Amino acid sequence: MEDRKKTLRDLEASKAQSQEVLDKLLGNLGESLISRNESCPGQNISVESDKDNPFILWQEKKRLDNEVAGAEDNIRTIETDLRRLGELEEEISRKEREKNEKAKEIIPVYTELGRLVMTDSGFDRFSSVYEQEMNDITLKIDYQQKKLDELDNTEGNFFIRVTKGVRGMVNRAILSKNEAELEKLYRLVGEQFLEDLENPQPRRISNEEVKLLEEGIICTQALKGRELRNQQITLNGESEKLRKERREIADALDEKGNPARRISELEVFISNTRDGIQKIYRRFGACARTAEWRVHFSPFTETEIIQDEKIGSITESLCDMEKKIEAVKIAIAIDNENAAIAKLRQSIDDKQRVINEAQTEISELNGQIAAAEKRIGELSEKQHGEEQ
Hints:
Largest sheet: none
Order of helices and strands: HHHHHHHHH
Strand content: under 5%
Mean pLDDT: 84
Structural class: mainly alpha
Oligomer: single chain
Shape: elongated
Low-confidence stretches: 156-162
Number of strands: 0
Number of helices: 9
């Protein structure tokens, strides 16, 4: 029986391989017939509802093609949006770097422009607003500088020198802080000066001050600052435009779910749909070979004729294999029944042997009983004789 089981496994493996080849040939034939016919023959012929109709299969294939195309378009759209988001991130980062560079570059320009404006009497009308604050800071700086000068001239023992060093550190720290505040004020003045030049309403710069500027006083610094400001404004506008586009694309993607998951789902859908199209090709190929439909697709091309002949040959081979498989299965079933019968007979033999052994034991026991009864009789007679 093991040989038959091995034969069955070999036949079933051969059948699966032949079926795979047959499915491929039927699919190729169906695809060829569909591809070379712009419209499907037989669309006006009615058939029983339980049979394949080439026209219905044709329509189903077209529908699935449209679904695949739509899913592929969706993937391309998502991928295009994701690529654009990446490009936008890079562009925005580049703009931010440029903005930071311009911001660093314009700070010393503002500072120098503010210093020039605050120290040029021609711009007193504008600088008067900041004059008191500048004077206060300047006095603090002069005071700290004076104290440092006094410490530098101080002499004494070790403890005096230590005290001098500590006071010097404190004064220098305060001096640095005041100098930073003065630079900050100059930067604010320079920035506000340019803003007032560019926004005449309301303007704090007099016509005389504008004229002085036009005649060349601090003109170079002002023009440099104006150019950097314009570059900043341009960069801000470009950056905001990029951010807006990024938000719009990101919002559109988020509305439909995670892009990566959507692409994965669409790819699975496309794969399954294409499997469905392959099944339609196979059904179409099988349908077109039948006597009912073959006439509507004739004449076959040379390639289709070769495919048709191979399909016929493999189909016959599969029929033969089916018969052999069925015969082997029947033989295995008979073997299984015979094995069951043999097992049952062995069980009967075992039970009969037990019965025979029991009957032998019973006979021996009956003999022992008869012997015991005989001895009882003899003893009874002897007892009766002694009583007489």
